[in-house]
From TrEMBL:
Classification via InterPro entries: TFIIS_cen_dom (IPR003618), TFIIS_cen_dom_sf (IPR036575), Znf_TFIIS (IPR001222)
Gene Ontology MF: a single term: zinc ion binding
GO BP terms in the entry: regulation of mRNA 3'-end processing; transcription antitermination; transcription elongation by RNA polymerase I; transcription elongation by RNA polymerase II
Domain TFIIS central: 1-115
Main function: Necessary for efficient RNA polymerase II transcription elongation past template-encoded arresting sites. The arresting sites in DNA have the property of trapping a certain fraction of elongating RNA polymerases that pass through, resulting in locked ternary complexes. Cleavage of the nascent transcript by S-II allows the resumption of elongation from the new 3'-terminus.
Every TFIIS-type domain range: 118-158
Chief location bin: nucleus
Protein name: TFIIS
Length: 160
């Protein structure tokens, strides 16, 4: 547990202007809160949480986290229970949201434009107002499949 206190101390002291005694006291309080939170665990969850807190304290983009813990804005008990998402800085959250939006845009497959034909007739309403798209659904030596939709009644069908 002393090594874990040392890790938390290093994380809190990294950007801190507080006295070393204050940092040690806060590191001991944080480590104790994590120990209490994970006392039923066989030690692996405890170690993982300590490493996670240390990494978040040392992250360049999360400069305020250590200051908030040292100032008492975040209590040791609250700090021990914070999820990875809660530990992130606002900038990190914004970047992740932007990245998620960008990935969603990339993942969306553009739909092929539909053409409207006067030669295709709807089997249901007999109107010649039919939109269609073509796609190669089978091997290259097979004809393309045509997907049709009646613009009048909404009936859909396909043919090769």
């Amino acid at each position: 547990r002393d090594r874990c206190i040392g890790l938390i101390y290093n994380g809190l002291a990294y950007r801190s202007t507080e006295s070393p005694d204050d940092v040690i006291a806060r590191a001991v309080a944080v480590e104790h809160a994590v120990f209490v939170e994970f006392k039923e665990d066989e030690g692996e969850g405890y170690k993982k949480k300590i490493r996670s807190l240390f990494a978040n304290l040392k992250t360049k983009s999360n400069k305020d986290l250590g200051k908030r813990v040292m100032a008492g804005d975040i209590s040791p008990e609250r700090f021990a229970k914070m999820s990875d998402e809660e530990l992130k800085s606002e900038d990190q959250r914004k970047k992740e949201i932007e990245l998620e939006k960008e990935n969603m845009k990339r993942a969306q497959v553009p739909m092929a434009e539909k053409s409207i034909s006067d030669s295709l007739e709807c089997g249901r309403c007999k109107m010649k107002k039919v939109s269609y798209t073509q796609a190669q659904t089978r091997s290259a030596d097979e004809p393309m499949t045509t997907f049709c939709e009646c613009m009048n009644c909404g009936h859909r069908w396909k043919f090769s």
